[in-house]
Amino acid sequence: MIAYRLLQAGPQPEFQEVPDPRPGPGQVVVRVAGSGLCHTDFTVISRDLGYWKDHPPPFTLGHEISGWVEEVGTGTKGFQRGDAVAVNPSWASCGRCHMCRSGEENHCLHQKAIGAPGVGYDGGHAPFVLVPEARFLVPIGGLDPVEAAPLTDAGVTTYAAIKSALPGIWPGSTAVVIGVGGLGLYAVQFLRQLTGAHIVAVDSSEARLKLAREYGADNVVSSGPDAADQIRQLTGGVGAAFVLDCVGVNATLSTAVAALSWRGRLTLVGAGGGSIPFDFFKMPPGAQLVTSLNGGGLALKEVVDMAALGRLRILVDRYPLNKAKQAYDDFEHGRLVGRAVLIPG
Ligand SMILES: [Zn+2]
Ligand SMILES: [Zn+2]
Question: What is the pLDDT of residues 265-283, one digit of tens each?
């Protein structure tokens, strides 16, 4: 099969012919329906060789995967050929620790830094992917498998970040989503579904802000130096009980802290690499600063179930797998509307 792979650390990925995978005991080969592009892929592509330690390239990119079970290895129970599935990408999780047993394999206490499809393991930018254990598969029933792909990271990441913040988001409080692209549009919908909060979307793109309104934002604010002041005005000066930063550069983090209420919670899911000083005098008293990475198998099941009920609008920009380079180029230059998903021909 032809896969889109990082052949060595540093240079751009390329298409390469590789053998079709076969499942060993307990493993499952999934025929890929869709494989999403994520901002993390650019970080993966730009790492130097020292980062990869035990899992150096070459490997196939793509960690947002959905499809159909193609072949199960011996001893694999619960799945049959043809079952539609989404793939939980926390492949380096142990499956036995407290976090794993709580459904938070993304926070496994024993996992290494490297270990997801497309991040050390062969990922989904290919016709088939070898899933190392059946426990990473979440059945999706009648949900469109192409639309299910972005739920495995973009969807589940914002869902888990919001679910854990729910005790501090009450009806009438304000929840802000900074960056309403591939991740943030899910966040707006989850806030709408799960809370009674007043929802404010912040972005630099008027088109995305318009979408955010359609997806449930009550107010929208353009990015910029006075964005935090505008949010404060919308909250009668109180500030936001919850801010989700889906971008994570210096400017968005500054806006987030300046918009936060006392005892507010700022959750950072955007891997933009920015920072802010964590300082007793520069934070609102009682503020909580949290990072969140992916969501784990339980959260993925809940997001899939919510989508199956028709409660989620999933915006996908579909590309054939052989147009992977074009898809990444469109992503890098801001030409996507939703999440780009590669579809093997
Ligand atoms: Zn990702
Ligand atoms: Zn674990």
Answer: 999 999 889 999 999 999 9
